[in-house]
């Protein structure tokens, strides 16, 4: 009897394997036959197909399954880390994660923001249309373009080093809902799989090369690599003053008036410029690239701060990395009746703190400036303090080298970003994390990110993919001794 059960079980097992491999073959045929191998010639087409999935945050599974199948067809090892919409994440690696090798992780997100006003799109947002010059659609830049470059680079490394034992694993990590920062995406991966993932370094989305950043050399582009980001501190202000409720008689004190006055006290004053080691270093690096007096002043920012600070203030994007910012995003008294005086009003402040600024001091300063003890100040959300990633590390240097090799006529600078993405969650865990998208793109394309008519120029993806490949190979070269020809024993 037992042997019969065993026989049945093994038959059943073989049947299951046959079915699952059959379904993979079917998928494999459908994708590969249509789109061809992962080569430079086909890279734009793969992006175009990926863009066609309407993977708005919380609806990632279909797009995720599609790109995961491409990973399977190309021989990568998959680990599913949540497989439902809003919590659909997976890794695709050159070795299984069970190999426990230090891991070079290329992070991207499957989700996109909604398309916005459809009537404003020249080409439909999920058409993936390839015109003579561009690849169109929501996600073409953020973040599917980056994902396709990363995927092609990982597969190229796999094929090139087949049968060899590398000192690193290399992993494509696709996650859900970066745009809404829901809990099922990168946070879920970190909370449940960080040990298994074993990241030595994480490369995440960031700025591309930017032209026009240098005043004295407007045609030269600069490649920023972000090593840190500001911390979000979200604050709620609440003021309650009971008064007669009729607007015909103005009371001496009432909530709306006092909140407006307090906010005026707070926001009417300019935020102080703060020079930190990191932003001073950034100015100095840019100063090295500028000519004449501008370059000289930037190389000595503390000495020339009287001249530099007003210049920085003129560009809020730039000034945001030299200051803690306070942005009033909501004032609400739950009232739309004109002759009623509401007793309560709330205001929301989106504040962003430089890496070394103290949250407590910042809050104290806000209370002082509001100058109204009746206003309750509470924290809705506060990102933890974290260390910047080391721009002296070998990973940073290798990334810089790869960028300079593939993008001539550029220079690399170290920056901190005013906002954060999923990569910041890894940095908060103390993992070396660098953010950039290694392509050179005209500024005008960046205006369409998260807006209508998102698209990227044709032909830039192959170059970005080569940059990732060179980065990975530089990391391998650092460890030539451990590059052996013995294939990994764990094969699946
Ligand atoms: Zn993004």
UniProtKB/TrEMBL annotation:
Matching Gene3D superfamilies: 1.10.150.900, 3.30.70.360, Zn peptidases (3.40.630.10)
Residues of the Peptidase M20 dimerisation domain: 227-374
Chain segments annotated as coiled-coil in the UniProt record: none
Entries under Pfam families matching the protein: M20_dimer, Peptidase_M20
Cofactor: Zn(2+)
Annotated keywords: Hydrolase, Metal-binding, Zinc
UniProt keyword Amino-acid biosynthesis, yes or no: no
Record-stated family: Belongs to the peptidase M20A family.
Name of the protein this chain belongs to: M20/M25/M40 family metallo-hydrolase
Annotated organism of origin: Joostella atrarenae
Highest classification ranks of the organism: Bacteria, Pseudomonadati, Bacteroidota, Flavobacteriia, Flavobacteriales
């Amino acid at each position: 009897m037992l042997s019969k059960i065993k026989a049945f079980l093994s038959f059943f097992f073989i049947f299951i394997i046959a079915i699952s491999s059959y379904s993979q073959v079917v998928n494999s045929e459908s994708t590969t036959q249509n789109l061809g191998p992962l080569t430079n010639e086909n890279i734009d087409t793969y992006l175009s197909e990926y863009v066609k999935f309407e993977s708005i945050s919380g609806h990632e599974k279909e797009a995720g399954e599609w790109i995961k199948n491409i990973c399977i067809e190309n021989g990568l090892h998959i680990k599913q880390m949540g497989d439902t919409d809003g919590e659909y994440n997976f890794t695709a690696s050159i070795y299984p994660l069970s190999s426990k090798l230090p891991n070079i992780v290329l992070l991207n997100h499957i989700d996109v923001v909604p398309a916005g006003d459809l009537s404003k799109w020249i080409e439909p947002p999920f058409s993936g249309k390839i015109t003579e010059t561009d690849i169109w659609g929501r996600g073409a830049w953020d973040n599917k373009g980056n994902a396709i470059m990363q995927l092609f680079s990982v597969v190229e490394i796999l094929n090139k080093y087949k049968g060899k034992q590398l000192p690193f694993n290399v992993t494509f990590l696709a996650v859900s809902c970066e745009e809404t920062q829901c809990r099922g995406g990168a946070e879920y991966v970190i909370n449940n799989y960080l040990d298994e993932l074993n990241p030595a370094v994480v490369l995440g989305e960031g700025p591309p090369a930017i032209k026009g950043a240098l005043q004295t050399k407007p045609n030269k582009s600069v490649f920023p690599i972000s090593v840190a980001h500001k911390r979000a501190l979200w604050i709620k202000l609440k003021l309650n003053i009971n008064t007669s409720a009729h607007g015909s008689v103005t009371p001496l004190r009432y909530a709306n008036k006092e909140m407006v006055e307090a906010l005026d006290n707070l926001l009417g004053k300019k935020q102080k410029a703060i020079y930190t080691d990191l932003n001073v270093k950034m100015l100095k690096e840019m100063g090295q690239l500028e000519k004449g007096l501008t370059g000289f002043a930037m190389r000595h920012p503390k000495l020339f701060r009287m001249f530099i600070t007003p210049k920085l203030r003129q560009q809020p994007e730039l000034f945001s990395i030299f200051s803690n910012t306070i942005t009033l995003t909501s004032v609400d008294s739950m009232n739309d009746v004109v002759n009623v005086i509401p007793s309560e009003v709330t205001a929301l402040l989106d504040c962003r703190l430089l890496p070394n600024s103290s949250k407590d001091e910042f809050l104290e300063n806000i209370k002082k400036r509001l100058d109204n003890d009746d206003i309750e100040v509470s924290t809705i959300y506060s990102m933890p303090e974290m260390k910047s990633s080391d721009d002296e590390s070998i990973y940073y240097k290798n990334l810089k080298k790869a960028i300079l090799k593939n993008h001539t006529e550029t220079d690399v600078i170290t920056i901190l970003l005013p906002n954060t993405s999923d990569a910041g969650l890894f940095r908060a865990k103390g993992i070396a994390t660098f953010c950039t998208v290694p392509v050179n793109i005209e500024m005008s394309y960046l205006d369409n990110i998260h807006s209508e008519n998102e698209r990227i120029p044709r032909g830039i993806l192959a170059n970005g993919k080569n940059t990732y490949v060179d980065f990975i190979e530089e990391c391998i070269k650092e460890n030539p001794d451990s590059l052996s020809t013995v294939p990994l024993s764990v094969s699946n």
